Amino acid sequence: MNLINEEITHKVFGEGNIVDHVDSVITIEFNEDIKKFVYPDAFQTFITLNDQSTAKTFEKVFLQREREERALELKLEEERERQVLEQQRKEKLKNHKIHESSQVVFWLDDEEQQNVFIDWQASTGQVQSGKNEGQPNRAARTRPNSAGLLTARKADQPETERQILGLFMVNETFSGNLSEDEMIPSHAEFRIELTDPEAEKMLFWNYYINKNHPHRTAWNTGKYRYFDNIMTAQILKDLIALRTDEEQIKEAENFLEYFCQMNALDMDDIPEASGFIKQ
Q1: 163 and 184, same structural domain?
Q2: pTM, whole model, 2 decimals?
Q3: CB 277 within 8 A of CB 160
């Protein structure tokens, strides 16, 4: 707003005329006496514009500036609070020995796709070489807080077309480092099978990215991979948005609430997915 040549009244120095305005400094002439003031702060306490029309316009501009500054302050405050909560979450994970990447994604073959939604358990496979060849390939990080993600793709499809077929919470009595075989059982309540139309829209690589090789989607060997707990929350959040049936929505909402509780996550502060496809 151009205030140069506007006449003002100062509580102490009296009548004056604005002769210059650069950024946060305004210069006023009082009977050949030049003084500088902080803009716009001085207008809140010491200075009044004489022209009523200009004063009203300035008041609107000033109020808008106040709103913008307050909005910025709130944003910064929210960011500080988010950082504090994130640090508290990490401390809680550390204190309770919950690994952030304790979630397991399974690569299902054709036979497993037929059976997994009947017995609701998934295999981590066997060690393929070395002194432990043929032994169960235990997913040692898995705990009752972990989720199991069931995925598959057709043989003629690229890896980026890998679909999410379902997911479950790990059984509340299971601990991966104490397991006797390669099977990971599911929780009796928190497990979801996606419909075919849902699976077509829920692609694994929308969420997952290989941190060591962010520009690759290779899954060369092995039946499972670990991934971050935030990714599970993102999948559940997107599944809730995708569904239209109230009962199915509630099913996914209950799963998300339980998962966030177990993993010390704020279910109202889940970031958007940023996997390989969405880079």
Answers
A1: yes
A2: 0.65
A3: yes
Residue-wise pLDDT tens for the chain (279 aa)?
A: 788 999 989 999 999 999 999 988 999 999 889 999 998 888 888 888 898 888 888 788 778 888 888 888 888 888 888 777 667 656 655 555 567 688 999 999 888 998 999 999 998 888 777 787 778 888 888 888 899 999 999 989 999 999 999 999 999 888 887 887 888 999 999 999 999 999 999 999 999 988 888 888 887 677 899 999 999 999 999 999 999 999 999 999 999 999 998 888 888 999 999 899 887
Backbone angles phi, psi at 92, to 5 degrees: -65, -45
Which distant-in-sequence residues (6+ apart) come within 8 Å of 124 by Cβ?
Answer: 104, 106, 136, 137, 138, 139, 182, 183, 184, 223, 224
Last residue of a domain, which of 59, 92, 125? 92
DSSP state of 64: H
Backbone angles phi, psi at 233, to 5 degrees: -60, -40
Domain boundary among 40, 63, 92: 92
CA distance 39 to 74: 22
Q: Which CATH number fits the domain that encloses residue 129?
A: 3.10.590
Q: Which residues contact 143 (CB under 8 A, 6 or more apart)?
A: 98, 99, 102, 170, 174, 175, 176
Establish if 1 belongs to a structural domain.
no
